[in-house]
Every structure is written in structure tokens, then in C-alpha cells.
Amino acid sequence: MTTQQLVSEIRKKKSFLCIGLDVDLDKIPAHLLQEEDPIFAFNKAIIDATHHLCVAYKPNTAFYEAYGIKGWKSLEKTINYLNEKYPEIFTIADAKRGDIGNTSTMYAKAFFEDLAFDSVTVAPYMGKDSVEPFLAFKDKHTILLALTSNQGAFDFQTKTVDGKELYKQVIETSKSWENSQNLMYVVGATKAEYLADIRKIIPESFLLVPGVGAQGGNLEEVCKYGMTDTVGLLINSSRGVIYTSNGTNFAEAAATKAEELQQQMETILK
């Protein structure tokens, strides 16, 4: 999917909501555990109920890898269902990969070719040659961890090196990498006050913003400092949407929560 197609979908749906499909068998409704594939059954119901309210879905691969081969098959079935039934949806493999060049190439093939995701999250710690293999894929997007929403982000990301915070150096350096136009960036909603400075470095790039909802991020603050003329934001909510209810009405409840967020977004877009 191209960036232009993503922007078009945002304008059409009046939404820049991304829903995280972080499926924990201990949290999904008990009646689904009788299904042959409870994870896929849960995802399918959530997707069918919310696809008209969001522009992206983001499965965190750890929630699938934890269940071994069965979990990976559930992930494969989920992405195949999205690509076949709702091809207009932007898909994000939240895998946080990143390794030496030949290994990164294989990671990229796994998510871009085999599973056919539109994008994948990547850790930048190993530098240029660990990220550029992902950037080589046409019409695919590499979402670089820039400034995350967890407490430990302050351990390294905001430390000053030669007078400049490390996360700023990472973002600035990434702009020089080959095919950097295929980069997006993760910036946590709980770091909204940092967005103004980030926009000075990457004024047009799309930002994936987790942390709205369960982690306490503020949507209005994020949009105030981070929105661009083409919106430039994907606001992710995972637990805050998919676990709204653990009853038989879980999908409808998730849709109600997703609609609340979409309505807020529509108001902001006006």
C-alpha cells in the first residue's frame, strides 16, 4: 500500500485509528475457547465489527509466537483474511525486528512476502545495515522505534549525547538511509510534548502512536503537536478496544469503543 492510498482511506473514513490485535487467550471471551482456532475467531469477529471505523490493524507478533506453531498459523489466517476481505486496510506487523543485514533481509521477506503485511516495526539500535534491507521493498513501510511509551524509554532514548537527545539523533540519521521515504516512526502517545520537536526533524512522515487509552495518552494533545496536512498519524489502541467486553457481545462492544475514537478523530479532522 502506498502512503497516498493510506491518506485516501483516512479521508474517506474520517479516521486515523489503528486497532492492535494483541490476543491473549486468558482475556478473550470464554466461549471462544471452544473454537478450533480461538485466536482467529476472536480476530475475525473484531475485524468484521470494526473495519469501517479504522484504517489499520496491528497484530503484535509476540501474542502469536507465544502459542507456537498454532499461534503463527492464527497470525497467518488473520493477515490473509484482512488482505482478502478488506484490502483497503493498512496492516502492521508489530514485530520490532532488527539484526545484521542478511538476517534483516530474511525478516523482511517473512513479513512482506510470505505474510504480505504492508509494514513492520523495526528496532534501530544496530543501525543502517539492519534497517535498509526492510526499506528495499517497494510500497512497503518500515516503522522505526523512535520514542516509545514505556517507562524504560528514559533509560536511553532521551539521554543527551553531544548535546542532543538520542532519539533525535536516531531520527535524523535515519533520514540519510537508502529509501528512507519508506520510513514511518513509532512515537508514544504518553510523550506527546515531544512531538513538536520531532515534527521539526520529520515534518511529513507518518507516526504510529501507541499509548492512547489503556496507557493514558491524550488524543487531542497528540494531534495538536503531531498532525500534518495529510494527517500523518496512526493512533493505535489495543486493549482499550478489543477487551471492552469479555462477554458474547465482545465484538459489538469493541465497535462501540472504536466508534467513540473515530468520532473524536472526525471532530479533530474538521
UniProtKB/TrEMBL annotation:
Gene3D superfamilies: Aldolase class I (3.20.20.70). Transmembrane segments: none annotated. The active site is at residue 96. One of its GO terms (biological process) is 'de novo' UMP biosynthetic process. The keyword Lyase applies. One of its GO terms (molecular function) is orotidine-5'-phosphate decarboxylase activity. SMART domains: OMPdecase. Keywords: Decarboxylase, Lyase, Pyrimidine biosynthesis. The keyword Nucleus does not apply. Its EC number is 4.1.1.23. Residues 16-254 form the Orotidine 5'-phosphate decarboxylase domain. Pathway: Pyrimidine metabolism; UMP biosynthesis via de novo pathway; UMP from orotate: step 2/2. It catalyses: orotidine 5'-phosphate + H(+) = UMP + CO2. Belongs to the OMP decarboxylase family. Type 2 subfamily. This is Orotidine 5'-phosphate decarboxylase.
